[in-house]
């Protein structure tokens, strides 16, 4: 079982819709969870992090964490064409200095 | 602010050649990382460092070496280049091992 799994997509949504990106992880010792966005040909950038079960909102982005199900998701409300990118889920175990990344989900928002 | 600077941006190597990818950061971050990203894949950790003089292996260290003599610099050495090392290499730094700041990447082709 891979440490961090994401649906590779591609995921295509119309402009203004909600995009839902999912990630599962295998290590129950994981304590920190991150979403990075990577535009084509560019480097990743952090957009959200979450440590506790529940939801965390930042503007149009909501991260959701369920440690019992070992599941983390990212919702993008009112999706814009500028949100078209690959979204990478990353997970860190407690006491570790390393982030483990999933393969990423490519999102396309159609005008 | 320069942030994380990687050189070169592009390089073509012949099989068996060696080279060093340079990475420098000006944010006084203790943590530095080297990742590689193959097409359609996520980021795989090659080596990382938690401070000057301290380095450790990641998921895919074979064929690579690193050193960390200063806080600012974290070069990645490729010995005896192989086609399997064709990839995009990202250097990143972090103040806390959580939010990673990435360089622009170095695209390496081994022929």
Folded structure, characterized:
The complex is a heterodimer of chains A (111) and B (111). Chain A has no helices and eleven strands. Chain A is an all-beta fold and 111 residues long. By secondary structure, chain B is an all-beta fold. Chain B contains no helices and eleven strands. In chain B, strand 4 (31-37) and strand 5 form a beta hairpin. At the A-B interface, strand 4, strand 5 and strand 10 of A face strand 4 and strand 5 of B.
Helix and strand topology:
The complex is a heterodimer of chains A (111) and B (111).
Chain A lengths: L3 E3 L4 E4 L4 E7 L4 E9 L6 E6 L3 E5 L2 E6 L4 E6 L8 E9 L5 E3 L3 E6 L1
Parallel strand pairs in A: 2-11
Antiparallel strand pairs in A: 1-3, 3-8, 4-5, 4-9, 6-7, 7-8, 9-10, 9-11
Chain B lengths: L3 E4 L2 E4 L5 E7 L5 E7 L5 E9 L2 E4 L6 E3 L9 E3 L8 E8 L6 E2 L3 E5 L1
Parallel strand pairs in B: 2-11
Antiparallel strand pairs in B: 1-3, 3-8, 4-5, 4-9, 5-6, 7-8, 9-10, 9-11
């Amino acid at each position: 079982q891979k440490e961090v799994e994401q649906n590779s997509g591609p995921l295509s949504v119309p402009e203004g819709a909600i995009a839902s990106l999912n990630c599962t992880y295998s290590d129950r010792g994981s304590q920190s969870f991150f979403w990075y966005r990577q535009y084509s040909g560019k480097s990743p950038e952090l957009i959200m992090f979450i440590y506790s079960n529940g939801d965390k909102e930042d503007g149009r982005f909501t991260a959701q964490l369920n440690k019992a199900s070992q599941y983390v998701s990212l919702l993008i409300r009112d999706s814009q064409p500028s949100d078209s990118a690959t979204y990478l889920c990353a997970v860190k175990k407690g006491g570790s200095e390393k982030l483990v990344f999933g393969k990423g989900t490519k999102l396309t928002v159609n005008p | 602010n320069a942030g994380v600077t990687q050189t070169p941006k592009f390089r073509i190597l012949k099989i068996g050649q060696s080279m060093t990818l340079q990475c420098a950061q000006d944010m006084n971050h203790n943590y530095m990382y080297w990742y590689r990203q193959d097409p359609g894949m996520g980021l795989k950790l090659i080596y990382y460092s938690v401070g000057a003089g301290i380095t450790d292996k990641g998921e895919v260290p074979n064929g690579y070496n690193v050193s960390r003599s200063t806080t600012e610099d974290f070069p990645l050495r490729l010995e005896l280049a192989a086609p399997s090392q064709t990839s995009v290499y990202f250097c990143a730094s972090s103040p806390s091992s959580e939010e990673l700041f990435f360089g622009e990447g170095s695209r390496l082709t081994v022929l």
